[in-house]
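Long-time lurker. I teach an intro course on protein structure, and each term I like to show students one example going from raw sequence to a predicted 3D structure in token notation. This year I'd like something fresh instead of my usual example. Would anyone be willing to generate the tokens for the chain below so I can use it in lecture? Attribution to the forum is fine with me.
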Amino acid sequence: MPHALRTRQIHLDFHTSEHIPGIGTDFNADEFARQLKDAHVNSVTVFAKCHHGLLYYDTKRPERHPGLSKKLDLLGEQVDALHRHGIGAPIYISVQCDEYAADTHPEWIAMNPDGTHVGRGPLKNDKYSWQILDMSSPYQDYLYEQTVEVLEKFKPVDGLFFDMCWDQPSASNWAKKAMLKAGLVPENEQHRKKYAHDVSMAYMKKFRALVKRHAPDAGCYFNSRPLWNMSEEAPMLTQIEIEALPTGGWGYMYFPTNVRFARNFNLPYLGMTARFHKSWADFGGLKPYAALEYEVSQMMAHGAQCSIGDQLHPRGTLDRGAYELIGKVYKRVADREPWLESAKPVTEIGVLFVEDATGKKDAGPSREGWTRMLTQLKHQFDIILSDSDLSQYKLVILPDATSINPTMGKRLDTFLRAGGAVLATGTSGMTDDAATLTWKALPVKPHGMSPFTTTYMRFGKRIIAGVPDSDHVLYNAAVRVKPATGATSLAEVIEPYFERAWDHFSSHAQTPGDKPSGYSLATIKGRVAHIAAPAFASFATHGNYPLRLLVRNVIELLLPEPLLRVEAPTTTEATVARQKNRTIIHLLQYAPERRTRELDIVEDIVPLMNVAVSLRVAKKPRRVYVAPQEVDVAFTYEQGRMRCVVPDVTGHAMIVVE
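-- Reply from a regular --
Happy to contribute to a lecture. Here you go:
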């Protein structure tokens, strides 16, 4: 049975310097809990140990914060007060960031190959920079002892949140000795990375077992891990937490991209943003209400539980303005929970994400490109792995440079025979040099990579709908392909007069197009289509809308009756979820703006009026209404589709089809 996650959480940071006195002097346990309860919070992650390596509970260990009164068990009083008010209280422990341990045991700090310490240097004062501990050193035993004490003092804990748990290569004596014993070569960078990963897997397994022995029903999560390694790490987790502060460096695409992958592992999952204008510890920084509403609405729309980050003041008080903001947002969540509980996202497209030849899990800009493009097109999609169940999808996309080995090729063949469709882009299903097919079902004959860095797209009659009648620039190099026997070219490549060079150029930028090259840009045969451009990476980089129109019109041939159609701007996000007896359509209209040189933000909510929606459903609905107000919406039903017009989308609208 998956671990149950609370729905409206606070991640309450408390990284507090030993130079700050009077820790918790203004803390009032009941007022603390009441303030959170009034803000509709039902779980708070509270601190046992922070990045400074200091402890905030009643302990004889020397790491106890020196500014914490001997009479105050801050963590203990927090946990007790929260529990009295029915609020969960999982506990935070910092792992590889520990200033106290680094200062008292500098030999435990991870070491670079050149002999310098990993992390903050001795005279550095950079934000978000800490000394980094080596988990192959005795520090791991030290951390284990701290964790045992927390588990015993607060037994049974609601959960443990271990933070700063990435794979940290080290050239320390401990790491080198262990590497040699394992048959690895310390001088080899890849071997150091492998050993670092092995260390992470081992200590995560060890600490997960420790938590389970002391509190079998407790949550356990290791943060700062690569979500793309979830197949290996899921057995050591009770949930998945997607830390994604859009204004803190993650951006507004991080959560919607990663959640479409994370939700496929049969674990409860949550999204984590923060109340800060920028990133963690932005004291005095409060983001606009519209931004926080948007971020939390995205979580709801993707079936995630919600978490908002904050930081407790050293004196132990919560910021009143912050909790007025949080309370307003969480009241919206609480009102909508009857339509959120156990609601599962409904998808029909799987975007295949596989390792490259070196085992590296990184799709580069393609990852952001496919999320941006398919979201703008209102398609319902997951990000899947090579061992995912393809049968639940109608269309599988092989984006840009997806390696297809024989095993995966056979799985795709089976998927096609069962009635599925496939869209490949770029060199997917080919060798890296685009000379040979690695999946024979592609409807093209490859002729290598184009020698031109910039070419042009000319759409054919079958996919010209809605596209300006122009030769549209393609900013990234494409594959040269011609249609295979029985295949049809949907668009052709126009090549330039010549490749621009220092001594051979025309005008300011790319050389203009000359004439049709004889190569196909888009090709289809049956239920398989190929686009010769790296469409998603190019879209992520350049945002060239004709590429989106190309993908839209090719998908229309492969998936003529999509689950959802929405007549709304490209800024409108749309997702579908299903409960036992009803389907819920989420429409989000917020549109982040670039209001500084580096910061996107949402400050205003501009309503959309009269949004036409069409949903594919098996039988005529009994009722269609807007939740949570339960205002009925008139609808029609014909040819397997429910059609209605949503009168108003102010930020986030939920349309319920029963």
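Some talking points for your students: The domain at 8-341 is CATH 3.20.20.80 (TIM Barrel). The first helix runs from residue 29 to 38.
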